[in-house]
Amino acid sequence: MDKSFYNKVLGAAVANNYAYAICRLPKKQTIKTFIAFDKPELEPVITGSNRCFAFSPFDHGENAFMLKQSLYYEDDRLINTTKSDIRQFGFLHQAAQLLKQEIYYPSKQKTQQIDEEQYINFVNQSVDAIYDKQFKKVVAARCTQKKLAPNFDLIKYFFKLCDTYSNAFIYIYSSPEVGTWIGATPEKLLTVENGILQTVALAGTLEKNSKSDWTKKEREEQAHVENFIANVFSKIGVSNYKRGMVQTIAAGNLRHLQSTFSWQINEETIEKDFSQFLKELNPTPAVCGLPKMETAEFLKQHEGFDRRFYSGFAGIVDRDATQLFVNLRCMELMKDEAVLYAGAGITLDSVAENELEETEKKMQTLGSLL
Question: What is the pLDDT along the chain (370 residues), one digit of tens a residue?
Fold first, then answer.
């Protein structure tokens, strides 16, 4: 495929101050591009609504910035346009003419960088809080900055992620208000397709080529997430769901423990059930901790930086299917540098230096390809 198509279309979006998103679903080949002439607003995600791209900050329940398509492409084919919107004609003409144009909005909000000593101190603080029985688990995150090469090419980088991580959800989200985020996430948050609602309990981390086996700590981490999801089903009055066996999955250079939950959803109440489930589910213990509300407040007070969209969610909402993914392996693009984000699950058995090393390995998912 001619990559210049994306430079022209995304360049025309930026030239007109429009938001856009491009993405590729796990194990798929098609690149989907959304251009929004109108500013995305923070609103509840409603499954079965018109096609749009959802992008949600950390701890916002069922709400996300909904990038509603004015133009929608699959690869370089224009599939859908907003009828009777005169702006599309000027946009399409401009996209065909552009030769050189900026193609993303650098983020303007400076994120507080967490150094290694600060992170280790916070992990130890979290372990102490767990020992005092305030929490069962805390997910401690950090971020670090990495200089971009002078010739950094966003489109080449996106396709490099697609080639390297075929099992991940790959996306770019860029808007004048939010800036630009890129992700390659292995974790499904919530999907609805063919009447089946699915989510996963994913936790625990080992290097892909490590000969080590899963320890009690990682298995407990994953069990916490499983129990949380089972409680969410119980809270909304559902008992006829299916829970799969715990399996080891590969995600880039890492391995995780994962089990799948599925439920044949009632078509007559699908919108209500989906919204209620998403509100109760997000954020999961895999990115926040247990109990959810108390650990979310603890993180806001003591973690030391604003997560922004890290550990929120991203994905596609459509009439036929909704596919949302946890925004795990991600980074934010500034003008000359990238801000990489990662976290680690803290339990009573955590060793701070080991958790720091785990975040470094997770940041390599995106950082190694810069």
Answer: 668 889 889 998 998 899 999 999 999 999 999 999 999 999 999 998 889 999 999 999 999 999 999 999 999 998 876 666 767 767 776 766 766 678 999 998 777 788 899 999 999 999 999 999 999 999 999 999 999 999 999 999 999 999 999 999 999 999 999 999 999 998 999 999 998 999 999 988 888 888 888 998 889 889 989 999 999 999 989 999 999 999 998 887 889 999 999 999 887 888 888 999 999 999 998 899 999 999 999 999 999 999 999 999 999 999 889 999 999 999 999 999 999 999 999 999 999 999 999 999 999 999 999 9
Q: Of 214, 198, 94, 172, give the one whose Cα is nearest residue 333.
A: 172
Token code pair at residue 177: 């208000």
Residues 287 and 326 sit within 8 Å (Cβ to Cβ): yes
Torsion, CA 346, CA 351, CA 357, CA 359, rounded to 10: 10
Query: DSSP per residue over 45-77, as a string?
Result: --TTSSSEEEEE-TT-TTEEEEEE-SEEEETTE
Strands 242-243 and 63-68: unpaired
Distance CA 80, CA 73 (A): 7
Can you say whether residue 363 is alpha, beta or left, with left for phi > 0 and alpha for psi between -120 and 50 degrees?
alpha
CB atoms within 10 A of CB 264: 12
DSSP characters over 294-309 = HHHHHHHHHS-S--TT
CA distances from 151 to 9, 168, 218 (A): 20, 26, 40
Q: Is the bond leading into 44 cis (omega within 30 degrees of zero)?
A: no
- Positions of E strands within 194-253: 196-207, 242-243, 247-251
Distance of CA 290 to the CA centre of its chain: 20
The encoded tokens of residue 318 equal: 């459509």
Planar angle of CA 91, 93, 95, nearest 5 degrees: 65
Which of these, 367, 361, 347, lies nearest to 286 by C-alpha position? Answer: 347
From residue 305, alpha-carbon distances to 293, 300, 314, 316, 341 in Å are 18, 8, 21, 28, 11
